[in-house]
Specification:
Layout: E1 10-11, E2 18-23, E3 29-33, H1 52-55
The structure holds zinc ion.
């Protein structure tokens, strides 16, 4: 049985991977690899979620 897709799943503009934007404790939005995000997650948890900045092969394009 596959995990339901997160309702806010988007595609990375750089590499087309499925990502979800979650809130950090600082209140910023962070792109997270969608595979690690449960459908009711809304806050970034570094123990469970993987920042897409760490896995995106095109991460340099985010920095501007
Ligand atoms: Zn990417």
């Amino acid at each position: 049985m596959s995990q339901p897709e997160h309702e806010y799943v988007k595609r990375c503009r750089a590499c087309d991977a499925p990502i979800v934007f979650l809130r950090t404790k600082a209140g910023k939005l962070m792109p997270v690899d969608a595979g690690a995000v449960l459908h009711d997650d809304y806050q970034f948890d570094h123990k469970r979620h993987v920042s897409h900045f760490a896995t995106c092969p095109e991460a340099a394009t985010f920095r501007n």
